[in-house]
């Protein structure tokens, strides 16, 4: 049984300019212990579909799907209270802006223990021990000391480590990472990706990695879904995607990588004769 | 996300450029289009225009002289109440003056006070705030401490002291009130300027060679207007009421002058016996302020390019 | 030998931080003595991570901030904005394009006005002439005539970056400082903008200082590469030298950390994972 199954997911937003379809019939599934990368450019609906799974979309959004199941349990018609028991415990998420994702008013230790209090029945001392354990696991030096630190006293990379610690607090079955390294420097990105891959291999959790960076995909994913304007363009395992991209859009994306440049002009997506509807008006 | 291809668009001839210049009239039409999208703003504008018209045409509309005292009709109720008379539609006050006529004439003074005070406070406040926020450093510290001192005084007390120094009278009262109100604008402008100043487009204008004055007034200021418009609309009512308070203390508009705030202040003692003496001036102020606030909202939205569609 | 457009000698920039009532002020050395020379028509890429001083260096080269010490020469002419105000002629020579296309355009200025503003400030061309120039520049960067009267928020990131480039070129600069011009853009749009920059460089004989943290872009666009680390230029040479034989430890770390998107490294990774 797949960990997460989504069939024909559609998300629409009501905006002043009419209905906007952000996700258009996406189907995907994640197996246990698998790293699935969702690649796409801005506006491809890659984050929105995952937020829909988490139930984190604003009220203007309409979510429709033939099936959306986590470990065989239907997620579509779940009571909010039931959903909250799963979200944050069995499915957790980390975001792009590590510093903004942490509450600046509370210490790091408090924020980790808060999650533990919500989802486990550990007592105070046990929660503290677990928090230290988690910080150690994500590679933060002096975890005992660091429990009392505030987010602004840490660097972006360290904040992302804390976010990962919070996400891992309840041993999730599925971790959704939404552009986890986009705001970070390359050397830090490498450390964070290594950490994520290491934790994933150790815990055997499933992981969905949302990114726009082909390099990150190549370094992490088992399987890849390429999305464009809310639709799935291609799905393949990572090696065949890079070796033999099938869809013109995937080919265009790979060709547009500067390191793959042949000659002194970069091919652009338009060169691959994709229907590219012109940009009209402001985005919602 | 779609961007155009260089090759095909350069084929478009330069002649289209001639049609691209926008006349002032078109700009006005565009402004009106976006302003009229906001129904509240249009209603506000309509009400405001009516009030202005009443003020201008006061001698033609008013049934009585505003200061004529009818000794046979003291504290007469409005016409729909028992004892009301058709010749005094909204009743009379304690010395027998027709309230409707006083309200109509009062519109002149009150609008005048509101407009003068707000525009004085806004223009001075914006300039000081711009300078403080743009140059920072010692100028900023000195200016802001001065504003803090002004804000620390109870506003009416300070206005009183100022009027006492300048001498009583409507004009001096307006200057005093403007001075008391202007720190709010300074603070608002300064905060907005400081936020905008660090943005890249300001640096880009500087790299293009723009001097300080141009950067302050042409580049930064237009992006700081939203909070200022709201504050200006709100403080219109404060200006009228402050002027009334000064008038009440004998430092502003002097008693026979039919000014809304003064009318309100004079009528306080009758609030239980004759509700109409207090209610109508209050309603007049309320309606005017509401109209101006609605208009201000519409103005802010119509001036914000982000809300425009291509 | 061709002409040197940009030269810096031991450029230093310090920031004084804090200095409250009870705290002594601290001095941060953002740029510690950077020297470089750049020929006309070449592209120098400055690489480094956030906080390494590359943007500070860019601001000094663009004559926005004055250096604390050292010399800056544009076209062989010594520039010192701390002591002497710039002439319009000097100002015109160096222009900049910023990273964030959403912050670099005045939201209340129509595109046409954005492009004409540099001319209004720096020249006394008649209005019609100004408009013609702005208009042809708009077309040159790949936008359409009807964009002239639109506001910035109606454009996508890539289009805005084209507008920013057009604005920078309005004054016919010698040197264009590009401060991470493509790092906020999508991959396909990034390719378009990089192509545009290459075309413009050929057409106008422009010299670029290209600031970036993305090594693959740098490798594609640069003639010379400088790697900065904590305010110092730890590596400086031609692209081939730097990429094939990095001297400094940090440069090697940087190269190793850059994700590789080629089939070979994916194979290697999968093999490692299977083992």
The N- to C-terminal Cα distance of chain C equals 56 Å
Helix content of chain C: 25-40%
Helix- and strand-based class of chain C?
alpha/beta
CATH homologous superfamily of chain C, by name?
Answer: P-loop containing nucleotide triphosphate hydrolases
Strand residue percentage of chain C: 25-35%
CATH topology of chain B: MetI-like fold
Shape category of chain C: globular
Q: SSE order of chain B in H/E notation?
A: HHHHHHHHHHHHHH
- Put simply, the count of helices of chain B is 14
Largest interface: B-C, 36 and 53 residues
Shape of chain B: globular
| Number of contiguous helices of chain C | 10
CATH class of chain B: Mainly Alpha
Largest sheet of chain C: 6 strands, mixed
Number of strands of chain B: 0
Helix content class of chain B: 55-70%
Following the backbone from N to C, one meets helices and strands of chain C in this order, namely EEEHEEHEHHHEHEHEEHHH
Q: What would you report as the Rg of chain B, rounded to the nearest angstrom?
A: 25 Å
Structure described in brief:
Chain A has 284 residues and is an alpha/beta fold. In chain A, 36% of the residues lie in helices and 24% in strands. Chain B has 310 residues and is mostly helical.
Topology (elements, then pairings):
The complex is a heterotrimer of chains A (284), B (310) and C (275).
Chain A: E1 4-15, E2 18-30, E3 35-39, H1 46-54, E4 61-64, E5 67-70, E6 73-74, H2 80-86, E7 91-94, H3 98-101, H4 108-119, H5 124-137, H6 143-146, H7 156-168, E8 174-178, H8 186-203, E9 206-211, H9 214-220, E10 223-228, E11 231-237, H10 238-243, H11 248-255
Helix pairs in contact in A: 4-5, 5-7, 7-8
Chain B: H1 6-9, H2 16-20, H3 24-37, H4 39-56, H5 58-61, H6 99-135, H7 137-152, H8 155-166, H9 170-197, H10 200-207, H11 212-220, H12 225-248, H13 260-266, H14 275-303
Helix pairs in contact in B: 3-14, 4-6, 4-14, 6-7, 6-9, 6-12, 6-14, 7-9, 8-9, 9-12, 10-11, 12-13, 12-14, 13-14
Chain C: E1 4-18, E2 25-39, E3 43-47, H1 54-61, E4 69-74, E5 77-79, H2 88-93, E6 94-97, H3 111-122, H4 127-140, H5 157-169, E7 175-179, H6 187-204, E8 207-212, H7 215-221, E9 224-229, E10 232-238, H8 239-244, H9 249-257, H10 263-274
Parallel strand pairs in C: 3-8, 3-9, 6-7, 7-8
Antiparallel strand pairs in C: 1-2, 1-4, 4-5, 9-10
Helix pairs in contact in C: 3-4, 3-5, 4-5, 5-6
